[in-house]
Amino acid sequence: MEDCIFCKIIKGEIPSNKIYEDDKVIAFHDVNKEAPVHFLVIPKEHIESVNVINEKNSLIVSHIFLVINKLVSELGIDKQGYRIVNNTGEDGGQSVNHIHFHVLGGRNLTWPPG
């Protein structure tokens, strides 16, 4: 997508504090940190939201969770715990129409989130 901020980050048109990249995904620290550890994992393929996951693109979700597993261990939040958040649609709080997963940790995360 031409005007998608995450697509621009993937292309290197917008800088990010990247912590991981492979041929399928990129992970980077969130610029609006909500916890001591707060990063996003996004697929390089533009997929608008969970609502458009299908047979052809569904394997990306399992790959994203494998990457999250690796990164939480490397960042030292795997033992204490962390939260994975995916917002879908306007009422769900999705502000960028490119599927992404927030990973937050490094502090006690209260519930409900708000």
From TrEMBL:
SUPFAM superfamilies: HIT-like
Record keyword Hydrolase present: yes
A Gene Ontology molecular function term of the record: hydrolase activity
Motif range (Histidine triad motif): 98-102
Gene3D superfamilies referenced in this protein's UniProt entry, alphabetically: HIT-like
Keywords, alphabetical: Hydrolase
Residues at the catalytic site: 100
EC code: 3.-.-.-
Domain HIT: 5-114
Keyword Hydrolase: yes
Database matches in PANTHER family: HISTIDINE TRIAD HIT PROTEIN (PTHR23089)
Protein name, as recorded: HIT-like protein
UniProt organism field: Clostridium vincentii
Phylogenetic placement of the source organism: Bacteria, Bacillati, Bacillota, Clostridia, Eubacteriales
